[in-house]
Every structure is written in C-alpha cells, then in structure tokens.
Amino acid sequence: MKLKTSNLSGLAQRLPVPAYDRARVRTGIVHLGVGGFHRSHQARYLDALFGKQLGHDFGITGVGLLPQDRAMRDALDDQDRLYTLVEKEPDGSLRPRVIGSIIRYLYAPDDLERVLNELIDPSTRIVTLTITEGGYHVNQATGEFDPSDETIRRDLVRGSRPQTAFGLLTEALDRRREAGIAPFVVASCDNVPQNGALARRMLSAFARRKDSQLGDWIDREVPFPNSMVDRITPVTTDEDRTRLSQEFGVDDSWPVCCEPFSQWVVEDRFPTGRPPLEEVGVQFVDDVEPYERMKLRLLNSGHQAICYLGYLAGYRYADETCRDPLFVRFLEAYLDGEATSTLAPVAGVDLGEYKAQIVERFANPAISDSLARLCADTSDRIPAFLLPVVHDRLRDGQDVRHSALIVASWARYAQGVDESGAPISVVDRRRDELMARAARHSEDPLAFLGDRSLFGDLGEDPRFTRPYLDALESLREVGARETVERWVADPDPS
Length: 494
Hints:
Largest sheet: 5 strands, parallel
Low-confidence stretches: none
Shape: globular
Distance between the termini: 64 Å
Strand order of the largest sheet: 5-2-1-6-7
Oligomer: single chain
Strand content: 5-15%
Mean pLDDT: 96
Number of helices: 21
C-alpha cells in the first residue's frame, strides 16, 4: 500500500500511524538539512509529542539547500510528507511506525521567497539545523570563521541570492529585525562541540562581513542553545525498502532505519516558547557541556577508533568490526585508557555502563552501519571528536598512543588504496589535499600532520609524533590487524 494520507487508516492495521490530526498541526519549527538523522531523531520526538495531543503549533517545515535535497523534496511530497521510521533491534526484528511531524518541505533554490516567508513568519519560533560538521565553516586550527568556500563567498556579495544555510539565516534574521519581529531561536543538532555557541560565532561572523551592525545584533539578540543528539542512523538501502514492503506491506520510497537508542539533551533557552518535549524524553538542562563532551569523546571518537582500522583490515561494517574481539579490545582500551580521563562526572550517567552500551550499539548486526560512512568527512570529525582528547592528555602529561594510532590509520586510509591494493573512495571536502599529503609518506612521514589548519602544531610535538610514526610504520609494514594486535598487547611500550 502506498504511503499516503488517504491510506493511513488501512496502514494502521499493519503498523502505528500518526495518532493525531495532521491538519491541525502548524509550522513552529523550520529545519535546515532534512536527512536521515533529522527524520530518525528530532522529527520522531515531535511526532511522539503530537501523539500526546501536545505542541501542535510546532510542526516542522523542512528546507533543502543542496542539489541532492531535490530528491528528498520529491520523495516526501509524493507521500504527503509522511515516511516510515524503522527501529532495528539487535535480534533482527523491526519496529516501524509512520511519522507525520514534517508538514511541509521546501527546496530553497526553487522556492527561495517562500522559504524566507516561512522564516520571517512570527509563528516560526525555532530554526533547527543538521548541516553537518562542515556546514559551520570553521578553521579547525584557529577556531575562526573560514570564508574560503565558494558558495560562502557568493553569499557574502551584497544583494546576492542566498545559497547557504548561513546566507539564508542572515537574510531572514535581517528581515525580522527590520520588521520588528523577535528573532527565532537557532538550535543546532549537529555533532560539534558546543554546537550552539559555535553556530553563534560562525553565523555572526558571516553576518558581520555583510553588515557589522547586523552581525552584532545576531550575536547579542539571537538565542543559540547548545544540544547533544544521539542516534545511529545508517543510510537507507534498497534492501530496507524491500523488507518494509514485504513484511509490512508499506510502499515507502525513502524510509529511515535506525537503532532503538535515542537521546537528546538541550539547554533550556527558548524565550519565545518551545514544544514541551520533556513529555517524550528530551532532557532540558542548564548546561549541556558534560553530556556533549561524553558523547563526542566516547561515541563519536569511538567510531573513529574502529572505522579506518576496520576498513583497512577488510571489514566494511561497524557491527562486523565490533564482533571481532581484537578490535573491541582496542576500542575499549582507547575509551578506558585515554578518552575517559578527559571527562568530568556526568549527572545521572554511569560512564562504565555508557561505554559498554556503546560497544553493544556498534555491534548491533541489524544496523549495518557502513565503515565508509563513518570514514567520510574526517577532516571535520577528527578535529572535533578526537583531537580534543589528545590536547587534554598532552596538557596533563599523559600518553596519547591509542589516539596516535587512530590518526595514523586515517592517514593510511587517505592514501586511497587498501591493503589488498583495491581503491578506497575517500569522501571529504578536502579530499585532494589529504590524499596528496598521504601520498608523501615515504619521503616525509610527517607530511599528513603538516596541515596546520587541521592539526595546529601537533606535528611538531614529539609526544604525539613518536607514537604516530610508530603506528604509521607498523600499518605500512604489517597492516592494520597486526598493528592493532601490537597495540593491545603492549599498550605502553615506553
């Protein structure tokens, strides 16, 4: 049965469907960057809230900005903005439900004024973002705004038609300011440290380059709450679509699959109002930093600990890698031996249990989260997830041997050829530069660390370069598996 509003009553015999009148839901949130994670996470929480007959003035209007977002627009419009969320249990069973919280989807390149009208409307009180780590245009070495991206440069031309999230937000906030309408809250849902504070710094820096007074006004008047988000959401496959159709009789062109676990912790800074999401499990706190640091340095950097080494060793999925006791031992050694020491206690969280749960989540065979996905966009991930652990431990005079192996495995992966000689498709906005540096390993083993915009002066610190060079040489001579065996057998050879 085709997933459409007119078919919901029939589909309700097969799986849960929205238990509320979608015609009563009004836009209160505009979301930029509607992908799998947004649909498995934020949209799911709001759907659950609407199901409790609460918050109907906080429906979602999704906005796409990139060329690939046109396909999402077409798929959702064909299904009345409905889609199926499928939670995959470790035993292989599926728990699908139809989500209805996205009530509109706009593709900005085709409908810019309509998007701006949604953003300017006083009923839009929150704008949420999943624009990926690279969407904030941060110079990783200095922490300052990086205006070098071509689309950013075009958006900075006075009178230009906005093409980026920053261009769109700046234009909308300027129009609200001119009209005397209170600014919306900008709530980042991306995996970057202090995502709200980062969004504030980068957006106001962008705006200042167009209008210094506007940039100062955004910095002063627009709320940017920090948040921590967590739910593993792999890319939807044809197999996922087929299984949903065969087992539940649902014809959905773009369902979303995810793990059962979900967490959302948000600073409670919404002066113009917010949906009562605490009713469906969202944690509103005064300070999200302890939760965020825990998640980024354990779960996200844990993914980095296994993805390059696992791929080089011949694995292609996270669950395969984490069913190998050797790689689990290395992951646990990194989490326990390096990452945890950089964390403060987190209220209500047992870190031992949290780390054990991470290993279980990674090993969920139903998720099939590809290592290629985890290896993508590393130039945005390693500086945000792993290098803060390195810097904190070096500051405290502690070793960073496991972290150095992780960075070395990235450098080896960036050579673009695996251990059997097969090509690796390196996906990164800085792909050409990274691969060029990795190609120079034989003549200059520290060439990869020479990118100061990523590593700062880390390539000049022997406390890091010694274990890094040991790891790189071992990866080259004996491969990933034997290198991991050496590391877990003798974690501190000094």
